[in-house]
Design goal:
The structure holds two protein chains of two kinds. Chain A has 18 helices and 15 strands. By secondary structure, chain A is an alpha+beta fold. Chain A has a nine-stranded mixed beta sheet. Chain A has a three-stranded antiparallel beta sheet with strand order 5-4-15, with no helix packed on it. Chain A starts with a helix and ends with a helix. Chain B contains four helices and three strands, in the order αααβαββ. Chain B is mostly helical. The chains are: A alpha+beta, B mainly alpha. Strand 2 of chain A pairs parallel with strand 1 of chain B, so a sheet runs across the interface. Bound molecules: zinc ion. Chain B: It comes from Streptomyces synnematoformans.
Chain lengths: ~500, ~100
């Protein structure tokens, strides 16, 4: 049975639950001293601990615990006075130990909240817990047609990622969002990402898997309070996908329920191309992890002095900082939301620190650079241009050495590895033609080539001069100073502008 | 008495992806029962006032600084692998999951 999103919302209230995994940016793994550098050759960052070899003993990474406590504090959580790690047992080759070291009923942080904004309105998302665990290895499936498990003849494992610290942040069930559930989910993940970046504990790049989201969703008939059966959509890895996954699951659940069916509790996979989910494994089979306290790691008992010291050192929270910047920059709540979703706040601030004004910094990051990032499928911060270089481009425009069109070409040049802005200007010969002689000649040619237009201008139709300016710009390949060209045209035609 | 059943052994075997015959299920049920029974004797001496203990040492907060230490080379890491390909551990087809 097919229902629309609007139909679904008329009948049901969505209940959301979001589980976000953040890969910490520590130098070493959570339980051993192996490096965590990206891009290293397969299996070059392992040791007996993270390979699960007999007799190896894990020791916890102090910075990993510190990051967990700071994340917990920033999420307004209580910090456990004493907690243990637990073994989550499962049989799958991505963990060579046959268990993942995690936390079970004693998370390091619990009972917090994160305020997020949707269209200028604050929505409080309650946090159930934030706990410490470790990442798994990376599997490559060989022999299948699409690199997926189905049809694969065997799988290859790289354990470089196995053991990298993860913090899993779990919300309480989110109700009351109604039709805005998709936007709330997206705003929550965006806000959390900002928070993580502000804390400096991870770069939180979703496209690199440093921040991953599982979306739990169920529906209950509007006006009731008993939750329905939920589905768990795994690894939804962009902000846009979070929004689409919630929307698509609301519609799917409503279709099942309206048709008199029963929602199956299961794991689902999100597909970027269609924006829909498909069934994975059902829960009853999979979820028997036989958790028990990890005997090889002693309990973690953060002293209250340490916790308070970390609390005192927290940075300005992103939402408060954003409100401050929004006033300073003079932009609307809606525009600020777009800037946040684009991950542009940091780059804009850094560009301003490098000397650009707010308007031009915003213009380049939210315009040409956002377009390019979108095209390349990366986040703004990952583009091959520094805030200093963007500030330099803005300065060249401010000095009248570049116009916007030329500036875009300079930015393209920098992104394509042709060097710093000034080098690109030189190499591509992009500076605005200030040479009065050359400009004058181009103006004379334009007038000579368009006698009809010139006559109109002489006759007082000054707006017709635009065609002559256009001809000059074309002749100079866009490098003329358009304002000066216009002045010269008027001068030569004896018209006061 | 713990009383490990044949069904429980079958469940554990499935979780561990082990194929056991009916005969083996009975055999292991008896063995596991004996092992758990032996361990359970601890409960006989621990009175009501003794909390469940996961760690025998009164230690907390044993941590290491976030400093990289040399690990294994890929060759060393793979030296015990039954099969390898492209500097990776090669494992059989993973069935029934995605
Ligand atoms: Zn290691």
């Amino acid at each position: 049975m097919t229902v629309t999103y609007e139909d679904a919302l008329a009948t049901y209230e969505p209940v959301l639950g979001l589980e976000v995994h953040v890969e910490l940016g520590t130098a070493t793994k959570m339980f051993c001293g192996c490096a965590t550098a990206l891009g290293a050759g397969p299996n070059t960052q392992t040791c007996p601990v993270c390979l699960g070899l007999p007799g190896a003993l894990p020791v916890v990474n102090e910075t990993g615990v510190e990051s967990a406590v700071r994340i917990g504090l920033a999420l307004n959580c209580e910090i456990a006075e004493w907690c243990r790690f637990a073994r989550k047992n499962y049989f799958y080759p991505d963990m060579p130990k046959n268990f993942q070291t995690s936390q079970y009923d004693e998370p390091i942080a619990y009972d917090g909240y994160l305020d997020v904004e949707v269209d200028g309105e604050v929505f409080r998302v309650e946090i159930e817990r934030a706990h410490m665990e470790e990442d798994t290895g990376k599997s490559t499936h060989v022999g299948g047609t699409t690199g997926r498990i189905h049809g694969a003849s065997h799988s290859l494992l790289d354990y470089n990622r196995a053991g990298i610290p993860l913090i899993e942040i779990v919300t309480k069930p989110i109700t009351g969002a109604g039709a805005r559930a998709p936007e709330v989910a997206k705003a929550y993940v965006a806000e959390l990402r900002e928070l993580i970046k502000a804390l400096g504990v991870s770069e939180a790049r979703m496209e690199q898997g440093q921040l991953r989201c599982d979306v739990n969703l169920s529906l209950m008939p509007a006006g009731t309070t008993a939750f329905g059966t939920r589905s768990e959509t795994k690894n939804v890895n962009s902000l846009r996908s979070v929004e689409r996954a919630v929307r698509s699951e609301v519609v799917r659940h409503a279709g099942v329920l309206d048709g008199g069916g029963r929602v199956v509790q299961e794991t689902r996979h999100f597909h970027e191309d269609t924006g829909t989910t498909t069934s994975g494994r059902t829960k009853e089979e999979a979820e028997d992890y036989r958790y028990f306290p990890e005997p090889d790691l002693v309990p973690v008992a953060p002293s209250r002095e340490w916790v308070e010291k970390l609390r005192a050192g927290l940075p300005e929270l992103p939402r408060l900082r954003r409100n401050r910047l929004r006033e300073e920059w003079g932009v609307s709540a809606h525009d600020m939301q777009s800037i946040l979703n684009a991950g542009a706040i940091g780059p804009i601030v850094a560009t301003m620190d490098a000397g650009a004004d707010a308007a031009s910094a915003r213009k380049w990051w939210m315009g040409e650079l956002a377009r390019r990032a979108n095209e390349d499928g990366v986040e703004l911060a990952a583009l091959a241009i520094t805030p200093e270089q963007v500030a330099r481009v803005a300065a060249l425009v401010g000095e009248g050495k570049l116009n916007d069109k030329l500036a875009r070409q300079v930015i393209t040049g920098v992104l394509d590895g042709e060097g710093a802005p000034d080098e690109v200007v030189d190499k591509r010969g992009l500076a605005i033609v200030k040479d009065e002689g050359a400009l004058g000649a181009a103006v004379d040619e334009a007038i000579a080539a368009n006698p009809g237009v010139a006559e109109k201008v002489r006759g007082g139709k000054v707006q017709a001069a635009g065609a002559l300016v256009g001809a000059v710009m074309k002749a100079t390949r866009g490098q003329a100073d358009a304002a000066r060209a216009r002045e010269l045209i008027m001068e030569k035609l004896g018209v006061a502008d | 008495m713990p009383g490990i059943t044949r069904e429980e052994v079958a469940h554990l075997a499935r979780l561990a992806r082990l194929e056991l015959s009916g005969e083996e299920l009975d055999h292991f049920a008896g063995q596991l029962d004996a092992i758990i029974g032996a361990v359970a004797r601890v409960s006989d001496v621990a009175g009501e006032d003794v909390p469940p203990t996961s760690h025998p040492l009164p230690l907390t907060n044993v941590m290491r600084p976030d400093t990289v230490r040399p690990g294994l080379t890929a060759q060393q890491a793979l030296s015990g692998a039954p099969a390898q390909e492209q500097q990776r551990f090669k494992v059989p087809q993973i069935l029934g999951e995605e």
